[in-house]
Hints:
Distance between the termini: 23 Å
Number of strands: 0
Number of helices: 16
Largest sheet: none
Amino acid sequence: MTPNSLAKGAALNLVGRVCTVLAGLLLMTLVARLGPSSQGIFALFVACEAGLLALFSGFGLWLARAHSQAPNASWAELHSTVVITALLVGALAGLALWSVALLHPQAPYDRLVLLAWAAPFLLIVPTVSGVWLGRGQLLPLNGFLLASPVVVLLGVTVCGVWWPPLDVSRVLLAWVAGKSAVGLVALWWSYRSQGWRWPRWELMSPAWRFAAVIGLTNVISLLNYRVNLFLVERLDGLAAAGIYSVAVTVAELLWLVSSAVTTAVYGRIGATDPTAAASSTLQAVRWGALGVLLASPFLLGVSWWAFPAVLGEAYRPAWWYLLLLLPGTLAYSSASGISAYFTNQRGQPWLAGGIALTSMLLNLMLSWWWIPLWGAAGAAMATSVSYGVAIVFGLGLFLQLTRLPVRALWLRHPQSDQPAQSAP
């Protein structure tokens, strides 16, 4: 893949993600101004939704892998089977969420009943997006990505105008209603563009193991990102979790650059030529890290002003948490590229899961120790340390599997010690 085509694909994906994040930031601002406790409820609810999507994201990645490795084949039967499976699994997940809400009738977990109703439809977009991801069709991929927060914002606006006063419960209702609506549109697109066939469940036989490993890997990754948010809520209170969640959300904006580059080359990383796949992965790692490094000072400067001025004086400490999070955020910008290599090229998503598990366990251990001492600042420091340690492990594993020397991380055309081998 030439640098020019990589830049075009990454730029298109980045524009879509920036628009999506701007809509998400506007929504976060509306909720944050309701107070830190409301922001805490919202952040923990969204984290639970992210856990649902992460657990069942393997269905979409299975489709992506099929399309990236055989882009001209007909996958209509597989597509129909996977989408219907996602609907059924989503319904079962909804029952589980309903049970959790009944067992924990206090905030924020009582709101999970809303998530239970929407669960089947929430899984549709990440599932059918596998087609676009595998084919490198970034326009529809980003279109549906942007549609969700835009529709949610419209719903929140309607609630604020026609159903005042706006509170966090109404925001969450608009959230699940908007995302469910987008899911139904994606389901309609799936029917019109791919054509539906009667499910052939035997096609899911090789997919179940892949999807289960992907789901477990992604849940571990999500816990790596969010575990100390739940610990801050438990050890330091809901309001503290709300303030800390703002810093986490803003820090993760930096990953827009690295994830945009990885998405642009995801199909190339799944190529049958392992040398080309390793080269594309290294491009994603280098350009992603450089983008994060250049964007960090700007993000810090804007946040120093915006946290107290836009969100309220209660959020001023979030800037210090952001400052502590940045070293680890910069280090972990490489994770999306090497994770795509392990998953889409080698078909070994558990390797990415091992990196995330290493980070999560270290994060959990340090957070239990440091949050009682320093509050949310301790959580931020624990995150940075765990991210740094894990990415050193991940890059080392990538270099070992590809037989590339360490200098490959910064040299454009390094010589490998031996030809890289793809997984069978």
